[in-house]
Amino acid sequence: MSGSIPFYQKHHLHYDRGYRSKETQSKVSQYQASSRYSASGSASAATRSRGLNVSSHSGLKESRLSPSPKRAKPTYLAVDKDNQIIGYVVPIFRGSQEFATGLSDTEEARVRDTAAYMARRDLFTSGLEMERSELSSRKETMRESAERITLNKRIHEHEEHFKRMNEDSLMHAPEFVIKPRSHTVWEKQCVRLHCTVSGWPDPRVVWYKNNVALDPLANPGKYKIESRYSVHSLEINKCDFDDTAQYRVSAMNAQGELSAFASVVVKRFKGEIDEFLPAPRRAITEVGPVSEYGITFQTHIVDKFGVSFGREGETMSLGCTVIIYPALHRYQPEVEWYRDDVLLSPSKWTHMHWSGDRATLTLTHLNKEDEGLYTLRVTTKSGYETYSAYVFVRDADAEVEGAPAAPLDVRCLDANKDYIIVAWKQPAVDGGSSILGYFVDRCEVGTTHWIQCNDTPVKFARFPVTGLVEGRSYIFRVRAVNKSGISRPSRVSEPVAAMDPADRARMRGTSAPWTGQIIVTEEEPAEGIVPGKPLDLQVTEATKNYVVLSWKPPGEKGLEGVMYYVEKCVSGTDSWQRVNTEIPVKSPRFALFDLAEGKAYRFRVRCCNSAGVGEPSDPTEATTVGDKLDIPSAPGKVIPTRNTDTSVVVSWEASRDAKELVGYYIEGSIVGSNVWEPCNNKPVNVTRFICHGLITGEKYVFRVRAVNAAGISQFSQESEAVEVKAAIASPAPPYGITVLECVRDSMVLAWKQPTFIGGADITGYFVDYREVIDGVPGKWHEANIKAVSERAYRVSDLKENKKYQFQVRAANMAGVGIPSLPSNTFLCEEWTIAVPGPPYDLQIREVRNDSLVLLWKPPVYQGRDPVNGFYVDIKEADAPEEAWRGVNTKALEKTYTKIKDLKEGEKYVFRVRAQNKAGVGKVSDVTEPVPALTKPGTKEIVVDVDDDGVISLNFECGNMTPDSKFVWSKNYEEITDTSRLSTETKGTKSKVVFNRPGEEDIGVYSCLVTHTDGASSSYTLSEEELKRLLEISHDHKFPIIPLKSDLAVELLEKGRVRFWLQAEKISNNGRVDYVFNDNVVSQGEKYKMNFDKNTGVIEMTMESLTPADEGTYTFQLQDGKATNQSSLVLIGDVFKQLQKESEFQRKEYFRKQGPHFIEYLSWEVTPECCVVLKCKVGNMKKETSAQWHKDRHQIKVDEHLGFAEGVLKLEIAQISKKDAGVYEVILKDDRGQDTSTLNLTDQGFKDLMNEVFSVIANSSTPLKITSTDEGIRLYTFVSYYNDLLQVTWHYKDSAIAFSDRIKSGVVGEQLWLQIKEPTEKDMGKYAIEFYDGKGGLRRTVDLSGQAFDDAFAEFQRLKAAAIAERNRARVAGGLPDVVTIQEGKALNLTCNISGNPVPEVTWLKNDREITSDEHCILKFESGKFASFTITGVNTSDSGKYSILVKNKYGTESGDFTVSVFIPEEAGSKKK
Known about the structure:
Number of strands: 102
Shape: extended
Strand content: 35-45%
Helix content: 10-25%
Structural class: mainly beta
Distance between the termini: 144 Å
């Protein structure tokens, strides 16, 4: 519809400087300020030059942009006729010093002090002085003036150029202009490696030896590293043999890293090494590489990477293990990686690593550009080895469903200062709808802002991008678009600068090593001459979007500043219109846009310079605007061919008359699926391709499309269907030809099977022979016309005592293979030895980590007597011949054996010898080495017995090929008799079924799968195993329903009776018969049946049992043909007990309908020896009451209990005999009552008290020892003491008979034993035993040794203290504390005195002794009474008085105070 905008234009961003960040704008302005030139200063430094021969030569290819110099660099490399650098060519301009040196102001300051600069300046200025002295004519003066004008103009242009130049556009990764060369030197010589490196910023250069960085400081005097103006060198001083290595120089800057390699070989003079080694040689002869020092390196690439598949955006690593023999320390091979035969270098997309024995290539971010054939090349001094495999890269998932895949291989074909042509390749996947076109995006280097370059999609796979800023670098990407959406962007292109190709060529020049020679040339632009016509104008590319013109500059030399105007004219008219009206172009090519599609145009070009505009070129032929390049035609016939079991080789006829063909895309589809998948995502430019990753056994068809820049062709016709399976080829030659027997006119030969059989079974062998006369072999003759299937054959019609050679060829359905190498020369003479010949055809099967099976065939030549046994020898593959050892000590009768106890991973070889009565014969050929390893996916033969009792052996193989077959053997002889065994094979599984198992079937059964890597297994059917299998077979033929439990009976609530059993497994078709006394019973009022088929539980219930129910109960089960039954006999006491229990349970049910006892009345004793009577009740409510009775007397009532279920308790503290009796609890409410009784009389009370005694005993503390003044006491404490407690004291395990000297007793909770006046006879072990009606409890203590001594000593001390306490002097009493007496009265105080001996008595007043006198009379009578008398007291008698009594055991005093008062004073006090 008109006016609508395509979806791909809705978010289009036009070019704008506004995307730049402030930081970028600042750097640009700084750069422009630093790049300005002074025209007047430059002009004043102009120099003159005479007419010298001018030559400009360069021996270097164009490289990337370099920062030095900023503009044209007039220093070129001068080369001779052999392209060898001989010096510099310096073009002379009569201009500023800037153009004399080719350096800008900033660069001049940077290199001014270098020796190279000084040498060039001196040589140059001396030449100028000489030229200036010779110029005197007027003509030369005018020329100088003209040149000055031209020079000023060029300086201005140069300044404007650098104003627009961005330093980023000059940045590029390091590049080796001159790489280091390999050297071969003698010992003690010096060698120097040097290289020239370009790059901006200036690269950092590091030298490596065998991938180890060299540090000159770590080896002073050994290495010298120098870097001068892009020339870098490594000097190795006094080389020795250890310096033989591979040296690598690595250059790195912000743009990337690059390495170059060189080898140094240090040779020794003759006599310093083994004189038998050949002299070193450098040349590579016609035969092949010749190694140094007589060493030939053998390179083997193992552990290889296979065909790999990845997806865009993923990371992939390819690696191989490289084994080089002999392994020399420090020797490193050259390891290189190629993609499609193009050498790969390290980059951000590819990382390479060499660990010394493994080479790894890592693709960090897969893109379709990475698809291709990858090759690892390992080069040594003896040659090289390669390995290749293909890597396929699938498209990443589209961001929009149905969108096409991303384009690939974006590159810049042509770069100018105002446009760049971007080219790409179309993707293989269009997303289901045709691709409408492509969008090209650009991004300035150093930014992340992408700008779409075209408003509408372009179908042509090339597009000129305009609107670029001269001097800046850009990267590009492309996106494809269809009606569903836009694809992911492609991988970005390499950066490219928008500038004139001539400027780029000059600015990418690199300084060469200084040679000391300068060749001066002259370039004199012709001033004031209008240029002529451009030459060879032609249309190089024409599409409906643009037209590209190219031409050659005019033929005149030395024209000044030539630029071009392009003009167009509609065909048929003569109206020419200038296209670039504002700015002429400098480069001889131009792209025109905005031409009317379908119209024809002619084009011409004019040259111009400061002198004017020249004549136009010859116009081109009329060119119609449209795609000049046609889409290629569809490829021709496609032919698929079998290759491997996962790949097919597809070949096709090339597209006819295809121009600029890019390649082909191949697609494949499984027959009938109609789903096409790409086989390659990167176009291939050949007409044959191997499609990998196919499904084995499926049939595929293929089709091909051709690709060029105009588009993708139609599909070719579909190929014929091909099945994916390995291709068949003729087999490789057999090997190992040996003689098994020789008679006068014939010889029996044997040989080994080819290592490669060609993908099909070998159908037979052909043997040829030839006679050898005097060492000269004759003509070959056929020994057999019909192929022989065995690997042994008797060649007849030979001549006795003649010598012969033999060769063998193998044949399969693909044909007859090439013959084997001729055998050794054998003499045809009859064997007469007594011992047997060699066994042959040794085969190894069933290889496991610790075992394998060895088979062989008996010798053809038996010897004098028949063969009666075999011996097997073994040794490690790498072991010497002396390491052979026997596997068996007793001769084997069979031609096979299982060899055990192997070491995992070790390689072994085997041989076999036969014996007869004469002895042991010749050894067989040695087997090939075989490692003892169980291969992944290996499975064993499994024996199985099915539901019908059929016994079978089953084997499964997971790595079969379409041609694989299962071969079953018994005792390692193929089974051919099908009367006893039958074989069935389906897919990857095969089995052997025993028709009539019996003793005849005992043996070793094995299965071999052909066309595999030896998949095989065996199973030994012994007599015991056969018996076991027959029992299982019988059980399967006559199956029994297994039972988890037999028939049992249990009681349910209400006294109901349940008969039940459980079957392990029973189907929904199972049924049960319930039998009682041989009569089948059925569901009814009396019997209730239930059969849960999910759990296998079968049950029958009855409400109650009556005497009529006594008998035998049987459950009979049937499930298909499987049956079983279980019976239960209920008669006699068994039945009566069950009936009684049923009745009890029934009563219990009704009892529990009201308040009832869940747990009847019982007692327990607490740790505090408190007796608690308790019961647990249930089904209670508020109205329920509980009455406690003892001996029918109510003692307690609990009402309003208020709980449904709880515990009732009655506590009895300090129980005694009076608490004995019958206790009863009655629960009662409107629903009924329940009673619980507890008899605590006689035995019941005894049991209770025994428990109390047990608690008391357990609470007792350990028996301890203490001393008193009477003797030694043993004691223990209990938590509670009861008078009924029975305790017995023991001394030396005998009960103690108590007496006045030994007593026991109880004080509170202490139980003690007192021993008065102990002696040594009392020493020993004492114990106290508590009686609790059971085992009792005994506490013991040992009163002997130190314990007795300590206790006895304490007793003696206490005894003495007690005596002293009893006999010491003391005042017994009679004295008051205070005596108040009236003056004049008499005072008489008396106190009792005790003590033995009689104490001495002393009286004190105010702590001073007083004596008896008339006033104070002191008496001590009968040794007991002491008196104190004052006949008439006066005030002086007031004071503190004391009596002090004393004997040898102690002293004691009594104090009293006497207060004397006068009556008047007393009266006044009262008042």
